[in-house]
């Protein structure tokens, strides 16, 4: 069995094929500016995969709130023309194949739980830390979408002073706060803020501590609500080798402050990065069409 895979992103669209448990990647293309060009590109790619690999289905990773029952991608994203109509039926008609769609963060979580950092674990939370904080929840091996497709929207959680986890729990926003306060000639990026803190910049250390404390408290709260086996941290920040030990220290401090808490949450770094959404799309297709 061969499945065509598509990962829709705001800048590029990635393609691949899943054959006998192996991912074959294809050349990515720039995300087009309109729906007509979008359909043309995807249809041409799928037609080529039919001819080359004999694919029998298509699975798509997409931004937005994917409703698998209605085929509608709700909410909004950097690809605005894919939202708020039955795009699943459009894909089926154009590809003439079975099609599955899932949210991109959910796909990444499925990939990690299948054979990545959380391999073999039934209950997993993925935290995607970038410009904001998103994520996914896997319970008993399946994505937990929630009643309103809000499962995994951890960035909306309130932190101190009614500020959200997305506002306080990213390096991007930590750097913004530092730049607004100190107005350096060359504004720092999140990566540069981290480096400055490591070399002794006390103000940078303070902002970094806010970032870690926010994430640690969010992880602690999720642990004692959902009780996953582990948390998988993904996003650009996860490439920093110092992140894991620093976040573990912050989580231990938060857990220690709650004397009756019996468990310290377990965290790990995502194994898959660029390929995660394609791999997870393959898992989602299997769950939808071959569960029985």
From TrEMBL:
UniProt keywords, alphabetically: Kinase, Transferase
InterPro entries attached to this UniProt entry: ATPase_NBD, ROK
GO molecular function, one term: N-acylmannosamine kinase activity
Domain of life, source organism: Bacteria
CDD domains: ASKHA_NBD_ROK-like (cd24152)
Keyword Repeat applies: no
UniProt cross-references to Pfam families, sorted A to Z: ROK
Catalytic activity, EC: 2.7.1.60
Family label: Belongs to the ROK (NagC/XylR) family.
Protein name: N-acetylmannosamine kinase
Originating species: Loigolactobacillus rennini
């Amino acid at each position: 069995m061969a499945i065509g895979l598509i990962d829709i992103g705001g800048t590029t669209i990635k393609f691949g094929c899943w054959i006998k448990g192996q991912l074959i990647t294809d050349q990515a293309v720039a995300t087009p500016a309109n729906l007509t060009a979008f359909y043309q590109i995807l249809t041409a790619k799928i037609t080529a995969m039919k001819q080359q690999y004999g694919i029998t289905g298509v699975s798509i990773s997409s931004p937005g709130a994917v409703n698998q029952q209605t085929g509608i991608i709700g909410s909004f994203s950097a690809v605005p023309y894919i939202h708020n109509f039955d795009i699943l039926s459009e894909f089926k008609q154009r590809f003439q194949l079975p099609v599955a769609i899932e949210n991109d963060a959910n796909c990444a979580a499925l990939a990690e739980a299948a054979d990545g950092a959380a391999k073999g674990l039934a209950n997993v939370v993925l935290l995607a830390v970038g410009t904001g904080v998103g994520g996914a929840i896997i319970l008993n091996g399946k994505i937990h979408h929630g009643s309103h497709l809000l499962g995994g929207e951890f960035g909306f959680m309130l932190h101190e002073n009614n500020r959200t986890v997305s506002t306080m729990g990213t390096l991007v926003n930590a750097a913004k706060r530092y730049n607004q306060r100190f107005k350096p000639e060359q504004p720092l990026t999140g990566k540069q803020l981290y480096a400055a803190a490591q070399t002794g910049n006390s103000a940078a250390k303070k902002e970094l501590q806010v970032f870690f404390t926010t994430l640690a408290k969010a992880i602690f709260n999720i642990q004692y609500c959902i009780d996953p086996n582990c948390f998988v941290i993904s996003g650009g920040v996860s490439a920093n080798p110092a992140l894991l030990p620093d976040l573990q220290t912050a989580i231990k401090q938060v857990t220690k402050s709650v004397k009756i808490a019996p468990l310290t949450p377990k965290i790990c770094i995502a194994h898959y990065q660029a390929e995660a959404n394609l791999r997870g799309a393959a898992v989602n297709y299997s769950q939808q069409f071959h569960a029985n």
